[in-house]
C-alpha cells in the first residue's frame, strides 16, 4: 500500500492562525464600538468584510468572555460592560505615564495642556494640566466635535481615509465662520497633518480660542492627542514655538510609552 504523509501545521502556521483570529475579533469589537444600539450579524459582516458565519462564531466567543452581548432573539450584538474595567485600566495607565510629560509641557509654554482621545466623531478630555493664565477650560470627560478641534483633527489624521469617511458626514456642523464643514476639504487637510504631524484649530470651534495638537501612541496601538488651547490674541506668532515644544514632548512621550510596555504594561 502506498503511504502518503500528511503535513501537520507547524508552530509558525499556528501563530499566524492565532494572529488572524485576534485580528478578526478586534475588527468585530471595533465595529460594535461604532454603534450605540448594537448591530446585526449582517451589519457587522458588512463593516468588517468577514463572512457572516465567521462573525457569528466570533460574537458567541466574545459573549462567552463577557466582551460582547449577543441576543439571538433580536439577532443583534453589542459591546459588554465587561470591557469597561479593561478600558478604564488601560486609560488610567495611559494617564499615569502621560501626566508628568504634560505637566512639564504646560510649565514650558505657560499654557493649558489637554490629553484627549477619539470616541466616535468626538474627542473626550481624559487628562489636563491647567495653566495659571486660565483660558476657558473644558472639564474632564467633556466631549467636543472632532472635525473642528485640533486634537480631533490630529486623531482623525491617524485613521485610514475610509475610516474618516465612515465617521463623518459629507457636510458637518458649523460652529464659527472658520469651521470646515465639507468632509472632502477636511480630508485634504488631514493629509497635510499626516506630513506635518501638527493639527491646528484657528477659531474653528470657538471664536477667540485657537489650539495646536499632535498624537502620541504606544506599542499597543492606542492613540491619544496632546493639545494646547490658547487665546487667539496670544496664539499668533507662537505657532513655531508651540509646535516645537509639542513635538519634542510627544517624541519623548512616545519613547516613554514603549518603555512602559517593556516594563510590563498594564498590571
What would CATH call the homologous superfamily of the largest domain? GAF domain
Rounded to the nearest angstrom, the radius of gyration is 22 Å
- In this structure, how is the largest beta sheet organized? 6 strands, antiparallel
The first-level CATH class of the largest domain is given as Alpha Beta
CATH architecture classification name of the largest domain: 2-Layer Sandwich
Low-confidence stretches: 1-8, 261-267
Helical content band: 40-55%
Distance between the termini: 58 Å
Number of separate structural domains: 2
Query: Could you say what the CATH topology of the largest domain is called?
Result: Beta-Lactamase
Tell how many strands the DSSP assignment holds. 9
For this structure, the quaternary state is: single chain
| Fraction of residues in β-strands | 15-25%
Strand numbers in spatial order across the main sheet? 6-5-4-9-8-7
Q: Please trace the helix and strand order, writing H or E for each element.
A: HEHHEEHEEEHHHEEEH
Structural class: alpha+beta
Residue-averaged pLDDT:
82
- How many separate helices? 8
3D shape? globular
Task: Explain this structure.
The protein has eight helices and nine strands. By secondary structure, it is of the alpha+beta class. The chain folds into two domains: 11-80, Orthogonal Bundle (Arc Repressor Mutant, subunit A); 84-262, 2-Layer Sandwich (Beta-Lactamase), CATH 3.30.450. A six-stranded antiparallel β-sheet has the order 6-5-4-9-8-7, with helices on both faces. Strands 1-3-2 form a three-stranded antiparallel β-sheet. Helix 1 (11-33) packs across helix 2.
Amino acid at each position: 500500500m502506498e503511504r502518503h504523509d500528511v503535513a501537520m501545521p507547524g508552530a509558525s502556521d499556528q501563530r499566524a492562525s492565532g494572529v488572524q483570529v485576534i485580528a478578526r475579533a478586534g475588527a468585530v469589537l471595533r465595529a460594535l464600538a461604532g454603534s450605540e444600539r448594537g448591530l446585526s450579524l449582517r451589519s457587522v459582516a458588512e463593516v468588517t468584510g468577514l463572512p457572516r458565519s465567521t462573525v457569528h462564531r466570533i460574537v458567541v466567543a466574545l459573549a462567552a468572555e463577557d466582551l460582547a452581548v449577543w441576543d439571538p432573539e433580536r439577532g443583534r450584538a453589542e459591546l459588554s460592560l465587561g470591557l469597561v474595567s479593561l478600558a478604564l485600566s488601560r486609560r488610567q495607565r495611559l494617564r499615569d505615564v502621560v501626566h508628568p510629560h504634560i505637566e512639564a509641557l504646560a510649565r514650558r509654554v505657560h499654557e493649558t495642556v489637554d490629553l484627549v482621545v477619539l470616541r466616535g466623531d468626538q474627542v473626550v478630555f481624559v487628562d489636563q494640566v491647567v495653566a495659571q493664565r486660565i483660558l476657558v477650560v473644558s472639564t474632564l470627560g467633556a466631549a467636543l466635535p472632532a472635525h473642528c478641534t485640533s486634537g480631533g483633527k490630529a486623531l482623525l489624521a491617524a485613521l485610514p481615509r475610509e475610516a474618516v469617511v465612515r465617521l463623518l458626514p459629507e457636510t458637518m456642523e458649523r460652529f464659527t465662520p472658520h469651521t470646515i464643514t465639507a468632509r472632502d476639504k477636511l480630508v485634504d487637510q488631514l493629509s497635510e497633518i499626516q506630513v506635518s504631524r501638527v493639527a491646528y484649530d484657528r477659531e474653528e470651534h470657538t471664536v477667540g480660542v485657537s489650539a495646536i495638537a499632535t498624537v502620541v501612541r504606544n506599542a499597543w496601538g492606542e492613540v491619544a492627542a496632546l493639545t494646547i488651547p490658547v487665546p487667539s490674541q496670544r496664539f499668533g506668532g507662537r505657532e513655531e514655538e508651540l509646535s516645537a515644544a509639542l513635538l519634542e514632548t510627544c517624541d519623548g512621550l512616545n519613547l516613554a510609552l514603549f518603555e512602559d510596555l517593556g516594563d510590563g504594561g498594564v498590571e
